[in-house]
């Protein structure tokens, strides 16, 4: 029996024929339906839109809550500051009334002097302003003003002849603590933020020169030169007005 000339090609013919999908080999097989594809695309678009809206709404809600908390914190700090000022005024009034109750003028003058020195009453006078701040690129405690740095500065200023000191409006006394609280520094248990403005009442002609001779000045020179912190000292243009320390209260009293 003679073989067909293409008999040896039957395997290749079968592979070529089977390579086509059934719907393309049959004229009666169903084709893809465009309508179903459009429905799937629309469903995907709807799901993506819902996801975007939910994400946007969630982000907006979080931003609003954060801003609300910041506003509440700001309002609380302003309220605290106002109450502190009121307390200082009342302390001044109490001190004046106590001085008037003394019959001896010398005793009244001594009491007022002790109030001013201790921080129990507001004081006004000439002086200097020292401003210290963190390094511009501070990423660790080495580039930040620490509670110990402020304590050294205050002690050096007292050694130089400071009569009264306040940090960011908070009057210091011998009982005022300067402590760290997380990333903030508290003065008399009130959180302060840099830059720290240290107002010093005293003789402006000698304060800075005498401060430069203290170990505190040497320490601040070291950290400003090596860690990028900043410190500026200027003479106050006008008399400084420092409030009383609201934490100063009468603890003991004795009548002779």
UniProtKB/TrEMBL annotation:
Record field: transmembrane = 35-53
Q: Does the keyword Membrane apply?
A: yes
Gene3D superfamilies with a match to the protein in the record = Protein of unknown function DUF881 (3.30.70.1880)
Cite the entry's keywords alphabetically. Answer: Membrane, Transmembrane, Transmembrane helix
The record, for InterPro entries, names: DUF881
Q: Does the keyword Transmembrane helix apply?
A: yes
Q: Quote the PANTHER family the UniProt record gives.
A: UPF0749 PROTEIN RV1823 (PTHR37313:SF1), UPF0749 PROTEIN RV1825 (PTHR37313)
Name the family: Belongs to the UPF0749 family.
Would you tell me the protein name for this molecule? DUF881 domain-containing protein
Lineage runs: Bacteria, Bacillati, Actinomycetota, Actinomycetes, Propionibacteriales
